[in-house]
Amino acid sequence: MSVDRKKLIIEAATKSFSLFGYKATTMDQVAKIANVGKGTIYTFYANKEELFKEIVDNMIVEMEKEANDAINPEQPFMENLHLTLYRLLEFRREHQLMIKLFQEEREIRTPAVLEIVEEIENAIISFIAEKINIAIQKKYIKDCDPELTAFLMLKMYITLIVDWERIRKPLSKEEIAELFDLYLFKGLSF
Amino acid sequence: MSVDRKKLIIEAATKSFSLFGYKATTMDQVAKIANVGKGTIYTFYANKEELFKEIVDNMIVEMEKEANDAINPEQPFMENLHLTLYRLLEFRREHQLMIKLFQEEREIRTPAVLEIVEEIENAIISFIAEKINIAIQKKYIKDCDPELTAFLMLKMYITLIVDWERIRKPLSKEEIAELFDLYLFKGLSF
DNA sequence: TAATGACCGATTTGTTCATTCGGTCATCAC
DNA sequence: GTGATGACCGAATGAACAAATCGGTCATTA
């Protein structure tokens, strides 16, 4: 059996998108890195965007795996939710491809990248919403719209970790856990 | 006494910035609208950015006045906080200059506009933080960092009103009030 | 027949030149 | 003499054109 060309292409594309982003990655370059003719890529993927989606979808699977690894079954639900959200934002801050994607979203606004970032966000929301849905059924938390709650929690974490750090001081993991618990779980009322 | 040239300039600049934004407003144009020589503008303001700041600072004062008008002393603190935040975001959505500013922030990223938008955000945060500070002292709510809490609340409102509407369905004023009360005041715990 | 890379039209990039703009200051009107 | 002005300046922007690059195709090849 000859070499697995599809695998070579996926590896090459992952490298290139991670290093240069979507726009700055050329199909010629991917072919070169993969040691494959350019035409070969088009026997597996209809176009550049399809190849891109495949790479990002793989990353999303990897991300969800990591998020699940963060869960500690002995901890209460809200603590695990915190650990999950925190791990997701760690991934977002450290994963090469993720970094490039968000940078390109901000700085170049490549349409294909805007689309894929929205897809990533949706994946995260679905992922969190599912956990919330279960928590509602098990009466761990009050009844609420799981999707909206997930959306709000994600935005809250981005606010606490990314935005607040930009204008004031960075918060530690423990501080964020406490704030999450105070604002969303216990509430500000006495 | 001759005409108040400074007032004419302020009125003209307000009109022009509101209609065309910062970048597309020229000093020649402001002078023309104000019926004033271009040099005259520079006897009051050191440069275009200073003039811009004056106009936006006036708008901030107007915005805070409107936000205060939204308060109903007979209502409980959290309801008034909701009314205030909602009014602030209404202002943001409806005020000509505000609309142009945020549009230019997103689409052109003019440095001077990025700066001023941050200034506006800081003004809102200080404004809300002050209310929260008083509420903490009066034991209306638990102890917390007023600035961080204000920041979080503002972001939460933007999430609920702007972001959620973009990806799903718009929420009514009452729904937002309920969500605000549920998530931040009562909390999700039983 | 799976793999390839020369080739194509479209888009992007680089370059040059003309225009516009923010800011100055010599002159003017009173 | 003083406050107001607009012609003028260099820098920045934009238009226009040429050159290079890129995504995608398909006749050829091994």
UniProtKB/TrEMBL annotation, chains A, B:
<dbReference type="InterPro" id="IPR001647">
    <property type="entry name" value="HTH_TetR"/>
</dbReference>
<keyword id="KW-0678">Repressor</keyword>
<keyword id="KW-0238">DNA-binding</keyword>
<feature type="domain" description="HTH tetR-type">
    <location>
        <begin position="3"/>
        <end position="63"/>
    </location>
</feature>
<feature type="DNA-binding region" description="H-T-H motif">
    <location>
        <begin position="26"/>
        <end position="45"/>
    </location>
</feature>
<dbReference type="InterPro" id="IPR009057">
    <property type="entry name" value="Homeodomain-like_sf"/>
</dbReference>
<dbReference type="InterPro" id="IPR036271">
    <property type="entry name" value="Tet_transcr_reg_TetR-rel_C_sf"/>
</dbReference>
<dbReference type="Pfam" id="PF00440">
    <property type="entry name" value="TetR_N"/>
</dbReference>
<dbReference type="Pfam" id="PF17932">
    <property type="entry name" value="TetR_C_24"/>
</dbReference>
<protein>
    <submittedName>
        <fullName>AcrR family transcriptional regulator</fullName>
    </submittedName>
</protein>
<dbReference type="InterPro" id="IPR041490">
    <property type="entry name" value="KstR2_TetR_C"/>
</dbReference>
<dbReference type="InterPro" id="IPR050624">
    <property type="entry name" value="HTH-type_Tx_Regulator"/>
</dbReference>
